[in-house]
Design brief:
Elements lengths: L7 H4 L4 H16 L7 E6 L6 H14 L4 E5 L7 H5 L7 H6 L1 H5 L4 E2 L5 E4 L8 H5 L2 H11 L4 E5 L8 H6 L4 E7 L5 H13 L4 E7 L10
Parallel strand pairs: 1-5, 1-6, 2-4, 2-5, 6-7
Antiparallel strand pairs: 3-4
Helix pairs in contact: 2-3
Length: 218
Amino acid sequence: MANDLALITLQEPLSPQSEAYRTLRINLQYASLDEALDTLLVTSVGPDEGKTTSLANLAVTLAQAEQRVIVVDCDLRRPQVHQLFGLPNDRGLTTAILDEQALQAPSLQHTGIENLRVLTSGPLPQRPADLLGSRRMATLIETLKEQADMVLFDAPPVMSATDAAMLATQVDAVLLVVSAGQTRREDSLLAIERLQKVKARIIGALLQNAPAIKASGY
């Protein structure tokens, strides 16, 4: 069962936060007019900045717009996607990479949300970067692209591991999540620099936990 407290786009679809995620969806659609945007990596500067929650809510809004969406948990250090959607995690990304049969037919799980499926992390490996940078990972990405209009990848924070920068070379674009009052400007600039060094296409940044603006009317 999905965690409705985290998935505000399900719990409160008319809230300002849900509207913000729909705006993000529209912005991404405009960004794909000139360059393809079939795969999107969502990461953050540091830990606990809301990247997984942001990715999950974005996925819901995309699915609600009748797009076929697959969410892939590539955070093989602190996976949380399965918890958000209330799914088992005995099989998933690592299973697909290590098993030939699973690579051809990844263990995609239905979420109960129309058009939205999830590939959880699976059992955690000893060397996550080796798996994420492998040729089999590239093969898996191509397999998933054939089954969806948009594939969203949840990656570890840029400043915590090399995983995000490695994955950034294999996707169409990167969305960087920052948290108001928490993310340091200096760390944000360093994270952007790391992504730019691998020629990642940074499509934009998402500001989490910004103070609410009280206003009447719209």
